[in-house]
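WARN retry 2 of 3 for item q-0093 after timeout on previous attempt; input resubmitted unchanged.
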Amino acid sequence: MINVPNINQSAMKNNTGTVNTQTQSVPANASQTNNTPNYTSTIYPQETVSVYNPAENAPKLTHTSWFYVNDVHGKMTNMERIYNISKEFDNTPSDVMSPKFFTNSTDNVSKFKVSSGDVILGEEIIPNTVASQFLNWSGFIASALGNHELDITKPETFAKFLEESNYKMLAANVDINPKSPLADKIHRSMITEKDGIKYGIIGIAPPDMHERVKLNDTLKDFTIYDVKETINRVQAEARKLKEAGINHIVVLSHGGNKLDKQLAQETQDIDIIFGAHTHNLIQGITEGENLLYSKTGEPVIITQAGKDGENLGILNVSFDQNGVIKKAQNNIIRTRDYNRPLFIKDTVEHILGKPEIVGRVRSAVPQPKNRLIENNPHSNLITDAMRIQLGTDIALLNAGNIRGVFSQGPIDTRLLTDISPFGNKMMILELTEKQIVDAIKYGLKTSLTRASNKPGLLLVSGLRYTGNKQGDLLELEFIDKNNQVHKIDVNNPDANKKYTVAADDFFATGGDGYLESNKNPDFVLQKFDQDKNVLARDYIKSLNQPIDIVDDKRIQII
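OK item q-0093 returned
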């Protein structure tokens, strides 16, 4: 039996302008879904407080249930589980799934499935095909354009994915070159109708897209607008929908939680913002946090379900006849509480191929709580493989590149792709000591002083460094191929001394800002048509088995 200990909370203004709140933690039991098409329901916890008087003359409500995901990041095994949960969502009556919220007949509960972007990840075509098909298989109707959707480097390839999709890709804050294959494939908004009610859905791409995406041909076709213009464009789109008689309007936002809060309070006519990009895990509904009020005083609810498909959400919302939210319940569900249906697993493996077992882990330390700003021992196998397999002095890798962990048991090629999924091309660079020190300093300062912690620390092999929580680089050591340690003066690094560096083309061309943005840098010595997970595969095969994942303190934050 699965225990789903959700905490649900609501706060809505009532007719007197005061706030009603209720918080309850109620264990819910559900039979774990198996590999057959028969699904049993998860009973979600206590409803949030209703803000209307359920008298005989109470206004008629429109009941909706929204199944939402964000930042799945190409995690295949979690996609398989999400598919499983989505079928339970389809097949279980809402008053059985949420009996304390939908207390009467649920014939009139309208169900929707939406994504706030970054379902795709990396350049590899075949895994991205599976990710796009996952949205089709699960029945999603729309997705925001995330930054990782633009990891697909060729616009014609991305256009083909969208031609084969059953969902709409949305972004109101971009303009696309009219000559691009993508010109008519990405929309500002869409209208969908359920049970006689029309709903408007608006998309937002990340305003910081250029910082988050490697220079490529797809990105060149886009003009992406800043936060201020993004809010203006979303408001204009919402006004247009409202003028068309649509008063149920939601936004699929890949702009981050700060932008979502601004949007909620600085616009009108928007009811729900399904958020993404900053990987927040927003549980329940809390006034001032994810229940805010528009310029006209109407409630706006914001959601976000973390990262990597570890969770998904079901937001239950009831609207009055004017399209104003009257009660709501936000449920967060752990995907690992569900099985991977065998037929979907087989379908994915038919597309991707059977994974190859390349090694075994005997023991592993826990993953860091925040992989962007902590030493991550699970990255060591990857960075060491980069350095050793390419025969360089050091290896450098942005922390955001590592998206999974090793655990006790077999290591297969699917796991390696899960941990390092981007499909970037490897390079050997020749960087000066000063370039290396500046890149490490940049990673420390930006990641430890920004609320988002992006882009993350620079992961290393052949180096050790210590920084403080203010983002200052205190010490740096180079460990040569004879295991001799050489201190580097972090205050006066040598601008003439050079090291060979294993890195990927995202880092080399200025991705995430560690180096200057340059599509064709002059310090590239050699290019390879493979990603680091291929190097990791061959490196792990060469090691004595089984392997221990240990914390060697190569990065310390004090």
